[in-house]
Amino acid sequence: MRLTLLLCAVCCVLVVTAHRYDPDWKSLDARPLPKWFDDAKFGVFVHWGVFSVPAFGSEWFWWYWQGEFDPAYIAFMLKNYPPGFTYAEFAPQFNAQFFQPDEWAELFEASGAKYVVFTTKHHEGFTNWGSPTSWNWNSVDNGPHRDLVGELGSAIRKRSLHYGLYHSLYEWFNPLYLKDKESGFKTQEFVNSKTLPELVDLVKRYKPELIWSDGDWEATDTYWNSTEFLAWLYNDSPVKDVIVVNDRWGSGTACKHGGYYNCADKFTPSTMPNHKWEKCVSVDKLSWGYRRNMKLSDVMDLPSIIKDLVFTVALGGNYLLNVGPTSDGMIPTVFEERLRGIGAWLKVNGEAIYATAPWRVQSENATVPVWYTSKGSTVYAIFHTRPMQYSFQLSTPVTLDSTVVTLLGNSESLKWAPLHSSGLMMVLPVLPCTAAEAWVIKLDGVM
Ligand SMILES: *[C@@H]1O[C@H](CO)[C@@H](O)[C@H](O)[C@H]1NC(C)=O
Ligand SMILES: *[C@@H]1O[C@H](CO)[C@@H](O)[C@H](O)[C@H]1NC(C)=O
């Protein structure tokens, strides 16, 4: 008995020791990804900031206007604002008058999303919480005079969604950053007095389950102290066991180091990556932030979104879909409609998405093209084209006598017969009309 206890104590000490991470990629990259992330599959991304006030072009407004001197942005300012108007003057108009975090959280939950990633600070540097190192360039001292990160977080958690924080490492026009940049990133004044204190503040205050890092690409991970930060995050932070991070931690780290991989925005691999990944896209195809000059033809339709979600999950990815709220805190109704449409489809077909794993084959061109996902010996065949006939053929699954075939949303099991070596033929019922234009055949007990 005593010996057992002693052995246990020794083991525990060993286990605890073994789980400390060193501040280098070899050690950090070996950390297993907390399981909640792979199970979640679908998240909502929200880009909100001072850029939502001019709401023209994209969330890169300030950069196009005064970094690149894009003529379209210069003309927009000349035409609509007094001479000498500065970007900082947009901030007081970021009023968030109609921002009801509970309404947003209700919508995100209704979309079927299991996590939400919110911009705490985009490249403009404006923080959506009262960062003590932000001077007055933050949402508590300026603009809405509210803790947007905190308010949304509480509402999200009441509905048991996971809360993720987007954070831009660089700030286009921050004088401290520009000074470090001028030194060839040999000095780290900006990192030590702004970036790291803010990241640590965010983690301690809001206990996020995901950090979506961005804006890393002009400097190396050494400049950003990324490995030191991640080692703290994984070893000693209040979220060390649940936190998930992406891969944007310094030039050259994307698709290579960190937690899961985003690679590039809207990353669309042609074969299954061998590392957990996430595809981020925006319902407005031309912008992540809200823009008033958005047209219906710029907006993803529901069938395309579902198709993209299914493709991503079949290849082992998560799907992070972005919406940009207006500066007064409304989620444009066209985005709301898309989100509720996804939720309606997932309500019937979600078992083919959540907590699934890629199957041994990702897709085939059967009677119509199908994408596969799986859960143990259950395989889901998802298709987006209404077949011309009721007989439907799949050539990859290997059936047993006990195999049961159903169409999700339809309680009757389907009549089927095996084909010669592998595959089966079944008779489909009348497919329901759905705005999502996607249906799922569930195959129980196949190989
Ligand atoms: C950043 O890294 C440098 C070099 O490793 C170290 O001297 C410095 O203390 C680190 N800063 C922080 C805030 O961790
Ligand atoms: C199915 O057909 C499409 C278009 O014809 C093609 O791009 C795709 O590679 C095919 N998929 C498989 C698994 O053969």
Automatic annotation (TrEMBL):
Protein family: Belongs to the glycosyl hydrolase 29 family.
Residues annotated as domain Glycoside hydrolase family 29 N-terminal: 15-351
UniProt keyword annotations, A-Z: Glycoprotein, Glycosidase, Hydrolase, Lipid metabolism, Lysosome, Signal
Signal peptide boundaries: 1-18
Protein name, per record: Alpha-L-fucosidase
Catalytic activity of the protein: an alpha-L-fucoside + H2O = L-fucose + an alcohol
Stated role: Alpha-L-fucosidase is responsible for hydrolyzing the alpha-1,6-linked fucose joined to the reducing-end N-acetylglucosamine of the carbohydrate moieties of glycoproteins.
Cellular component, GO annotation: lysosome
Residue ranges of domain Alpha-L-fucosidase C-terminal in the record: 362-443
Residues carrying the site annotation May be important for catalysis: C280
Main location: other
Positions of transmembrane segments: none
Subunit and partners: Homotetramer.
Gene Ontology terms, MF aspect: alpha-L-fucosidase activity
UniProt key word Transmembrane helix: no
EC number: 3.2.1.51
InterPro entries: FUC_metazoa-typ, Fucosidase_C, GH, Glyco_hydro_29, Glyco_hydro_29_N, Glyco_hydro_b
Entry-linked Pfam families: Alpha_L_fucos (PF01120), Fucosidase_C (PF16757)
This protein's record includes keyword Glycoprotein: yes
SUPFAM superfamilies listed in its UniProt record: (Trans)glycosidases
Compartments (UniProt record): Lysosome
GO BP of this protein: fucose metabolic process; glycoside catabolic process; lipid metabolic process
